[in-house]
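Ticket #4471: structure output looks truncated?

Reporter: J.K.
Steps to reproduce: submitted the chain below (132 residues) through the standard prediction queue, then opened the result file.
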Amino acid sequence: MQILDALTRRFHRSKYVRQLPFYLMRSFGVKKYYSKKEVESAIVRWKFNAHYAEFGYAVACHPDKLASDRLHDLRKQIAEKYGLPQDFSAFELIRLSHFKGNWYSGSSDNAEYWKLLALVEKKENEYQGNNR
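Returned output as attached by the reporter:
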């Protein structure tokens, strides 16, 4: 049973990491971080398994706003698993998205994803310009 639980958690972690940022950007616009309320709304609207909502908070909320050591640990695990910086944001995660391409044809024709990515890159440049 432990193996099944571990596989289930791994599946849901991957789903949250590779899909939630896309849905958050689609629903709430392109932001570096999202509020807990926005994450919860996306979980319900896009039918993620709410039992694993902690992955959503770890993925999308600002690290300073995480309410527990457990969420900080999950965030650290996600960063290590996906080769991300410890202070990763939705900007890094969108590049890991399953929505890069069309899942059934394997082609990179998801125009909405590429439009969001262009907005992310624009916002990144704005952030970098403000931090100089």
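Triage note (M.O.): checked the attachment and the full token line is present. The chain has one domain: 2-97.
Status: closed, working as intended.
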